[in-house]
Design a protein that fits this description.
This protein is α/β, with parallel strands linked by helices. The protein has 12 helices and 10 strands. The protein folds into 2 domains: 154 residues, Rossmann fold; 110 residues, 3-Layer(aba) Sandwich (Rossmann fold), CATH 3.40.50.1860. Helix content is 42%, strand content 16%. Strand 7, helix 10 and strand 8 form a beta-alpha-beta unit.
Length: 274
């Protein structure tokens, strides 16, 4: 019986959720690092963006989605949204101890503290993420003399959702934010939103090598791989099956999802909130 349980858990999917389709950048990174793993993704497109919602609302939405993913028997759940990760800290009770819930903040912080002592670190993200001070609190807990400079960049996620990437509009908005004096003289920049990997290159181009732009999606994917390996839950089978759910379907979301996941996917609408 124990053997069958672990066999089933190994083949179970990785659950991932976000307020919209931005978390597909994390899903794509996980797919690349762990090609044998199946993925169940839920995008709460009905309530996006979480970055403009109250902490209490985000907690309610996140709890319902986590319950859904647990019912799908996911072996690990990734909160692929910085706003949800910061809002649900110390809130979500895991009803099944066998299911680990991972946020996207802690793995990045674990990497940043390796270089925090001697450098100035910038953080950009949604209003909810930046106002929570989640990154600064966690980094300074482990590295008290760290110098952290945070800036809310609320226009970036909707800009990306609308497909404005690598063009005049996106360059103008990015330049306006990054030229803010709060980010002057930083050495490293944390992209504290799962949408931002899609403009990673544009941000790197702005800095022209002067600043190390931290790729959070790959950091999270590698963390998940280590976590599954440590628990002996890596799937050895090459038979994978991905499922993608949204709380409000539109053709534009399905079209945009291709940009985020780097391949054509079919979105299925499911209502968890009535």
């Amino acid at each position: 019986m124990l053997f069958l349980y672990f066999y089933r858990m190994k083949s179970s999917a990785i659950g991932i959720f976000d307020s919209g389709i931005g978390g597909l950048t994390v899903a794509n990174a996980i797919k690349n690092v762990l090609p044998n793993e199946s993925i169940i993704y839920f995008g709460d497109t009905e309530h996006l963006p979480y970055g403009e919602k109250s902490k209490q609302s985000i907690q309610v939405f996140s709890k319902k989605i986590i319950d859904f993913l647990i019912k799908k028997e996911c072996k690990i759940i990734v909160i692929a949204c910085n706003s949800a990760s910061s809002a649900t800290e110390n809130y979500i009770n895991n009803p099944l101890k066998k299911t680990s819930i991972i946020n996207v903040i802690d793995p990045v912080v674990a990497e940043v503290i390796k270089i925090c002592k001697n450098y100035k670190i910038g953080v950009i993200g949604t209003k909810a993420t930046i106002s929570s001070n989640a990154y600064e609190k966690k980094i300074k807990t482990l590295c008290s003399n760290a110098k952290i400079y945070s800036l809310p960049t609320p226009l970036l996620a909707p800009m990306i959702e609308e497909g404005f990437i690598n063009e005049t509009i996106s360059n103008t908005i990015i330049d306006n934010y990054l030229s803010n004096k709060r980010l002057a003289n930083i050495d490293h920049l944390i992209l504290a939103c799962t949408h931002y990997p899609l403009i990673h290159q544009e941000i790197k181009d702005y800095y022209q090598g002067r600043v190390n732009v931290i790729d959070s999606a790959n950091i999270v994917a590698n963390h998940i791989a280590k976590k599954l390996k440590a628990k002996d839950l890596l799937n050895n089978s090459k038979s994978t099956k991905h499922h993608f759910y949204v709380s409000n379907y539109t053709e534009s979301f399905e079209k945009s999802a291709k940009f985020f996941f780097k391949e054509t996917i079919k979105l299925e609408e499911i209502n968890l909130f009535n």
